[in-house]
Every structure is written in C-alpha cells, then in structure tokens.
Amino acid sequence: AQKVTQAQTEISVVEKEDVTLDCVYETRDTTYYLFWYKQPPSGELVFLIRRNSFDEQNEISGRYSWNFQKSTSSFNFTITASQVVDSAVYFCALNTGTASKLTFGTGTRLQVTL
Amino acid sequence: NAGVTQTPKFQVLKTGQSMTLQCAQDMNHEYMSWYRQDPGMGLRLIHYSVGAGITDQGEVPNGYNVSRSTTEDFPLRLLSAAPSQTSVYFCASSYSPGPGNTIYFGEGSWLTVV
Q1: Residue B83 to residue A102: CA distance in whole angstroms
Q2: Does the distance separating the beta carbons of B31 and A99 come in below 8 Å?
Q3: How far is A49 from A72, CA to CA, in rounded Å?
C-alpha cells in the first residue's frame, strides 16, 4: 500500500524567511512519481512539480526548490524568501502502478505574515 | 484556457436528495477522476475512468455513481445524499492513465448536505 506523510500540519513564518515542507512516502514499487500541489485560499489545486523515482536530482524553480532523497524516502519542498502570496495548503502526492491514482498526504498549511 | 471545468461551485442539499456534479475537460485527456477533500484527510479518490465507456472504483466509492459516455465529460452522481458526503469535490484529468502523467484539477465543488 502507498502512504504519504506530511507531519507538519501548519507552519507560520514571517515574510522573507526560508521554509521547508516535509514529505515522507512509503511504497514497495520501484517505479513511482512524486508530486507537489498548492492549494491557495481560493481553493483550486495548482500543480507545482513532478519527479520520478529514477531522478534524484534536486530541482530549483525561482524561489522554489525540491530535495528528493530515496535513501530516506523523502521529497521535501523549500521556499526561499517566502512571500505572503505563498500562503496556502501544500500537498505532497505519490503515484505508482499502472493508472493515474494519486495518494495524497494530509497537507501542510503555510501562513506567511508581514 | 478552460482546462477542467466543474459545476456547480457551491451546493446545499437536503439528506436524501440526489444531484449530479458536472465535470468537463477540453484537453482531449483520456483519464478523468473524482476526488473528495475532507479536513485532515487530504484528497481521496472516489472513481476514475481511463477512457470513454470505462470506469472503476477508487478508495471511497460508496454512495457515488459515475459514467463516461464521452471523452470530455465525467459526471459524479449522488443518488441519496448523506451528511457524510459533505465535502469539497475535485474533478481531475490527465493525458493518459500512466502514473507519470501530470494530473490537472478543476476548481472544486463545495457540497453541504444538511
């Protein structure tokens, strides 16, 4: 069975601080995909990144970066110099098998204040 | 850019009433699915479809019906609404059913059953 754990329920930071959102996953499959989605206060789900199990390179996109470590089954997400617009719930998700069925974590609510 | 369109955005139902949540995508995606989002539980898969005429159950299918008569549309039916079905519902689609495909979500439908 697949499982995604986001142990941080809620994080509050002051603008310009760096913040890391943790994601730990469990699967017995050797081929799998990991995703991060952002859910802003307006409620929609916005795709941020997809990473496959064979690519452990870290990725940076502007202020966002992702650290994938198979040895610890983690796919952590860091926001550098956070901004108020980063306030949202962030979901980590796992997809394995032959169909597009995502297993989501319970989400981390990030609150960025001035 | 229409993407995945869900209607209605908000709905209040009485226990025992029936209703259909509509979902349409204009990206010619083969794969479509429905998730529900509940506090503290992330998103859970209700039903999915890998193509027109083909549907299957996800993690929490009880109380819901689906059909896929066209590639574009994937309605979710509640035959006899119960308070336990109060939730936020997301329709999603991807180009094909494979696990590496990015899944794109609609804006969500907020359903309250009283």
Answers
A1: 25
A2: yes
A3: 19
